[in-house]
């Protein structure tokens, strides 16, 4: 059977019908959702960078910051020659390029590796603070310097190295109940444009400490971690209590042992344990004699625990016990 060519032509879409169909298929908004249809919105996604963890998951950083503040005081005070107040600010999360854009053109940026932590960490110190610490250390007033050069002097470099090494030592100590890190110095930059830790679009965690010497103005010391490097430790950081409390304070232990050495405990010994019936106890009266049998060795008892055994004798006109065996454990 032969088909009519005119009916075949009518089966094809005309230009207007084809245009309307294409417009229907491509009628979407700029975000990829159907316009006016209330469909789902499509947005770009990058694995590992989509969202930041909540503050609760990194709450351990706040506790660490408080402990690190006390350590920083012990690091800065020998340089400042005075009492120093250190206050930890709440940690922040931001993109690395945004953090670097806020830095002044001249500052101290030290890169350290904390193996096995991936990416390392940065320690940022204001140059005016370094200059004032050098001035205070050599007997000056430690007053802030309004204008200074574009590079550190050899003396400032040495002090800066000791300062940042002390900061990193404190970081390792406060992290000890979460993970054991091995620190190593990598490099130090003074130009923010050359500071490198992660890619520009990756997030970092910023911890800031306000340091106020007794004779100078407040300065900011910052520690920066890659957020991706902290993710493996989120469970430990979120924990309220850690079982490992770090190394024991030797001085505290010595003082505790010295105090315990002077504690007096009641010590007793049992010579015999005769047995009587209830009837004999009921008929007991003054003048009755209870026969006992002395054992060759009697126990020395402390807090219901047998500590040793010995023989009863006499020394300097007094009854005494000569220890012949000490119990183990």
Describe this structure in words.
This protein is an alpha+beta fold and 329 residues long. It has two domains: 55-253, Chemotaxis protein chec (3-Layer(aba) Sandwich), CATH 3.40.1550; 265-326, Roll (Surface presentation of antigens (SPOA)). 31% of the residues lie in helices and 23% in strands. The protein has helices at 5-11, 15-25, 60-80, 96-101, 127-137, 154-174, 227-230, 234-238, 250-260, 278-282; strands at residues 84-88, 92-95, 108-115, 121-125, 182-189, 203-213, 219-226, 267-269, 298-302, 305-315, 318-326. The strands form two sheets. Strands 1, 2, 3, 4, 5, 6 and 7 form a seven-stranded antiparallel sheet that branches. A hairpin with a 5-residue loop joins strand 6 (203-213) and strand 7. The longest helix has 21 residues, at 60-80. It is elongated and about 125 Å long. The model is unreliable at 5-11 and 28-37 (pLDDT under 50).
Distance between the termini: 109 Å
Helix content: 25-40%
Number of domains: 2
Largest sheet: 7 strands, antiparallel
Secondary structure tally, helices: 10
- CATH class call of the largest domain: Alpha Beta
| Helix-strand pattern | HHHEEHEEHHEEEHHHEHEEE
How confident overall, as mean pLDDT?
A: 80
The outline comes out as elongated
Strand share of the residues? Answer: 15-25%
**Which stretches of 5+ consecutive residues score pLDDT under 50?**
5-11, 28-37
Overall number of strands: 11
The class by helix and strand makeup works out as alpha+beta
* Structural Rg: 39 Å
CATH superfamily of the largest domain: CheC-like
User: And the CATH topology of the largest domain?
Assistant: Chemotaxis protein chec
CATH architecture of the largest domain: 3-Layer(aba) Sandwich
């Amino acid at each position: 059977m032969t088909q009519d060519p005119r009916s075949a032509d009518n089966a094809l879409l005309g230009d207007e019908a084809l245009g309307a169909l294409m417009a229907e298929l491509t009628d979407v908004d700029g975000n990829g959702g159907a316009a006016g249809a209330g469909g789902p919105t499509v947005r770009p996604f990058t694995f590992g960078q989509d969202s930041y963890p909540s503050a609760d998951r990194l709450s351990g950083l706040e506790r660490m910051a408080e402990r690190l503040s006390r350590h920083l005081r012990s690091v800065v005070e020998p340089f400042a020659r005075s009492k120093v107040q250190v206050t930890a600010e709440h940690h922040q999360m931001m993109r690395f390029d945004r953090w670097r854009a806020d830095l002044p053109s001249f500052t101290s940026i030290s890169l350290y590796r904390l193996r096995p932590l991936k990416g390392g960490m940065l320690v940022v110190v204001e140059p005016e603070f370094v200059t004032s610490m050098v001035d205070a250390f050599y007997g000056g007033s430690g007053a802030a310097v309004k204008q200074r050069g574009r590079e550190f002097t050899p003396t400032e470099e040495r002090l800066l190295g000791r300062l940042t090494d002390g900061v990193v030592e404190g970081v390792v100590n406060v992290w000890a109940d979460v993970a054991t890190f091995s620190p190593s110095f990598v490099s130090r930059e003074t130009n923010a444009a050359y500071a490198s830790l992660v890619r520009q679009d990756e997030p970092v965690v910023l911890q800031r400490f306000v340091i106020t010497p007794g004779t100078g103005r407040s300065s900011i010391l910052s520690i920066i971690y890659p957020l991706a490097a902290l993710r493996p430790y989120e469970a430990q950081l979120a924990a309220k209590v850690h079982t490992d409390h770090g190394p024991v304070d030797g001085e505290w232990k010595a003082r505790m042992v010295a105090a315990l050495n002077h504690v007096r405990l009641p010590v007793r010994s049992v010579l015999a344990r005769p047995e009587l019936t209830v009837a004999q106890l009921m008929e007991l009266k003054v003048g009755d004699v209870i026969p006992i049998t002395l054992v060759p060795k009697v126990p020395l008892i402390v807090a219901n625990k047998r500590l040793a055994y010995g023989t009863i004798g006499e020394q300097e006109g007094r009854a005494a016990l000569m220890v012949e065996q000490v119990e183990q454990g």
